[in-house]
Write a structure and sequence with these properties.
Layout: H1 2-19, E1 23-30, E2 33-35, E3 43-44, E4 47-52, E5 55-61, H2 62-68, E6 69-76, E7 80-84, E8 86-88, H3 107-122, H4 126-142, E9 145-152, H5 155-165, E10 168-175, H6 187-201, E11 207-213, H7 221-234, E12 238-242, H8 246-256, H9 260-266, E13 274-278, H10 284-292, E14 296-299, H11 301-306, H12 314-319, E15 324-326, H13 339-354, H14 362-368, H15 371-376, E16 394-398, H16 410-416, E17 423-428, E18 431-435, E19 438-439, H17 444-464
Parallel strand pairs: 1-6, 2-7, 8-9, 9-10, 10-11, 12-13, 13-14, 14-15
Antiparallel strand pairs: 1-4, 2-3, 4-5, 7-16, 16-17, 17-18, 18-19
Length: 465
């Protein structure tokens, strides 16, 4: 009888363990307040999140996640916030090695006198591109950016460096007709190279290949159309600099008898896969066209301010229903890749310039840096918010610091008080990229040393001239 009773107990125990067994996942994070940026803008206090492979499999209250999931790794945290990874939609990442060159100049002087002479020498140097991309990636990851769009030379080298660090990137192959740094290459040469790049990197889990005809002052309308045809062949995103300065607007008007937005419309290039950067000197007709065609806008407030290019008319754009995202531009013209700083400045710039404190509320600005940034890149089904089924791109902010108390309005605090140095850890595609403020996949000392070596090389080159 005793043996039967023991067997019965064991059987009950077995079925109970099966019934109440926790689901095995790779990572469980318990305790942070979670800003989801889902459609309902849910904020979960004392939340939890479960990650399996590269995806979020569950998100909710900490007690519920703890009861249902067992992680191979479990992170228990207090005094912290978990947010979606920030999305930087306009950058020339390797230009970080030119940070600080040519300060206090307008865009045209800055390019022709300070930037292009260096790029003519080093722009097609693979080591320069790789080291610059790694340094920029370190800064972006360390300040909470998990996805960025970068357009610069040697896109293969940029893509490989981003993969090495484990960060997500839309890497653009640039197209121009003529520029002093081209070293004999033609637009057709660049288009052929771009086709190879798009073929090579399609379907990569971290890298989205894209194409970037630079602008209508460095590309003819015909070349821009060819770039769009190539993008359509590979279903790739397209980005272009648009109406960054008043000079650009006046010169294009004089040359073609119409502005760049009308030129793009004539060539059939205003499409939902187009992301235009800057868009400062647009008029109402331009905005109507951009809105009608579903074109997206990357707003680069700090770069535009530093180069005295102007202020993007964000109020009229929002009224027209345009989707606006945020970009830092390159660190050479910003001079920072900290998206928290970009949010803060963008929000305040438009309030003071219009004397409207309700323009660009904090929640909207934070959306521009997360879910709207993902939409601008055509990636909102995968990233931009913390939801079950999406990729595990997220940022853990450690809040046991003076600047993180008190917190009455989370979005206002994230936009106006938090800076990149509040970032503690970063996950991209379910893997740690920053852990306890340290870069996981590369040597920080080595990146720092190489940046110093480039500083000396570039200074020598400038001195010799």
């Amino acid at each position: 009888m005793k043996s039967y009773f023991c067997s019965f107990v064991l059987l009950i125990s077995f079925f109970s363990s099966m019934l109440f067994a926790k689901e095995q996942v790779d990572l469980v994070i318990l305790g942070p307040n979670i800003v989801t940026m889902n459609q309902d803008r849910t904020i979960i206090y004392n939340g939890g999140i479960a990650i399996l492979g590269e995806k979020i499999c569950a998100i909710g209250k900490s007690s519920d996640i703890k009861a249902q999931y067992k992680g191979k790794e479990t992170v228990k945290t207090e005094h912290s916030w978990l947010i979606p990874g920030l999305v930087n939609t306009h950058n020339h990442a390797p230009m970080i090695l030119l940070r600080g060159l040519g300060g206090d100049q307008c865009l045209q002087d800055w390019l022709t006198k300070s930037i292009w002479p260096v790029e003519k020498v080093y722009g097609f140097d693979p080591e320069y591109i790789r080291d610059g991309m790694l340094l920029a990636g370190w800064e972006m990851a360390l300040t909470g950016t998990t996805t960025h769009l970068t357009s610069y030379f040697l896109p293969h080298e940029q893509a490989k460096a981003c993969k090495e660090l484990g960060i997500r990137a839309v890497v653009c192959h640039g197209i121009v007709d003529s520029a002093p740094f081209l070293k004999g290459k033609t637009a057709d040469d660049l288009l052929k190279s771009a086709e190879n790049f798009l073929k090579t990197w399609q379907n990569d889990p971290l890298i989205t290949p894209a194409i970037s005809p630079h602008s209508l002052y460095l590309c003819t309308p015909q070349t821009v159309r060819k770039a769009f045809d190539l993008a359509e062949k590979f279903q790739a995103p397209v980005t272009i600099h648009l109406l960054e300065t008043e000079k650009e607007k006046l010169e294009l008007q004089q040359k073609y008898g119409k502005g760049p937005v009308q030129l793009l419309e004539e060539k059939g290039c205003l499409k939902p896969n187009l992301l235009v950067s800057h868009a400062i000197w647009v008029d109402e007709m331009d905005l109507d066209l951009l809105s009608k065609r579903g074109v997206k806008v990357a707003h680069c407030a700090q770069s535009n301010m530093k180069l005295a290019s102007g202020i993007m008319p964000i109020g009229p754009m929002l009224k027209k229903g345009l989707l606006i995202s945020l970009g830092t531009d390159g660190a050479a013209s910003n001079n920072s890749l900290d998206m928290f700083q970009e949010m803060d400045v963008a929000a305040k710039l438009h309030k003071v310039s219009t004397r409207d404190p309700d323009l660009c509320p904090a929640e909207k600005i934070f959306a521009m840096a997360t879910i709207d940034g993902a939409k601008a890149l055509g990636m909102d089904k995968k990233i931009g918010s913390l939801e079950a089924g999406k990729l595990a791109d997220m940022v853990l902010l450690y809040s046991k610091t003076p600047s993180m108390r008190p917190i009455y309005e989370p979005y206002a605090h994230l936009v106006y008080a938090v800076k990149g140095n509040s970032v503690d850890s970063v996950l991209v595609h379910g893997k740690w990229v920053i852990r306890n403020k340290k870069l996981v996949n590369a040597s920080e000392d080595e990146l720092f040393t190489k940046a110093g070596e480039w500083e000396k090389k570039i200074m020598r080159m400038i001195d010799e001239k």
